[in-house]
Write a structure and sequence with these properties.
Elements lengths: L1 E3 L2 E2 L2 E2 L12 E2 L2 E2 L5 E4 L7 E8 L3 H4 L3 E10 L4 E2 L3 H4 L5 E2 L14 H4 L12 E10 L11 H8 L3 E11 L2
Antiparallel strand pairs: 1-6, 2-3, 4-5, 6-9, 7-8, 7-11, 8-10, 11-12
C-alpha cells in the first residue's frame, strides 16, 4: 500500500498550513485539508483510516499533536481531494484532533473534529501521515479519540503506509 501527499520540495503547500490565506483559515486555524493519493490497497480491505500528527510538538507542548484523524473510508478510495475534511466529499468518520483537548478550551466541531493544519511555533516540523487498511468497519462515532481507534483496530490492520511532510514555521 502507498500513500502520497503533494508537496513543494517536501514542504506542505501554504494553503494547507500556517501560511494559508485568512479566507482559508477559521478561528486562526488552517482548515483546508490537503489532497491525498492512495494506491495498492490490499484486496481484502473493507475500510481505510488515517492519522496526521506532529511528534515535533512534544518539546513544545509535551505531547504529539494530532491534526486530523478519520476512519471508515471506503476501501476503494484512491483520491481524497483538497478540503475533503470540511466538504464531506469522501465518506469518513472524523475524530477529535488535539484542539479538542481540555487544554485549548475549543468546542467548535468545525475545528475540533476536522483537519487543522500545521502551525509550528518554534521551527519547521515534520508531520507524519499514516494510512491504515482494515478488514472491518470500526465501531467509531464522530469525535472519537485516537486511543479508541488503536483499541478497536487492534487485530484488524491489514497494512499501513506512511509519508512525512514538512510544515514551515
Amino acid at each position: 500500500m502507498k500513500v502520497s501527499i503533494p508537496t513543494e520540495n517536501g514542504v506542505l503547500a501554504a494553503e494547507y498550513s500556517k501560511q494559508a490565506a485568512p479566507d482559508q483559515q477559521y478561528k486562526g486555524h488552517p482548515i483546508m485539508s490537503f489532497p491525498i493519493e492512495i494506491t495498492a490497497v490490499p484486496a481484502e480491505t473493507q475500510t481505510l483510516a488515517f492519522a496526521f500528527y506532529d511528534h515535533d510538538a512534544i518539546p513544545v507542548g509535551g505531547f504529539t499533536w494530532i491534526h486530523w484523524i478519520a476512519a471508515n473510508l471506503p476501501a476503494e478510495t484512491t483520491t481524497i481531494p483538497a478540503n475533503a475534511s470540511q466538504t464531506g466529499v469522501v465518506p469518513m468518520v472524523q475524530g477529535n484532533n488535539s484542539t479538542a483537548g481540555k487544554y485549548t478550551g475549543e468546542t467548535d466541531l468545525k475545528v475540533t473534529q476536522h483537519y487543522v493544519g500545521p502551525y509550528p511555533p518554534n521551527k519547521d516540523h515534520e508531520y507524519t501521515f499514516t494510512l491504515y487498511a482494515l478488514d472491518t468497519t470500526l465501531p467509531l462515532k464522530p469525535g472519537y479519540w485516537l486511543n479508541n481507534f488503536y483499541k478497536v483496530s487492534a487485530g484488524h490492520i491489514l497494512a499501513t503506509a506512511e509519508t512525512t511532510v514538512i510544515g514551515k514555521k
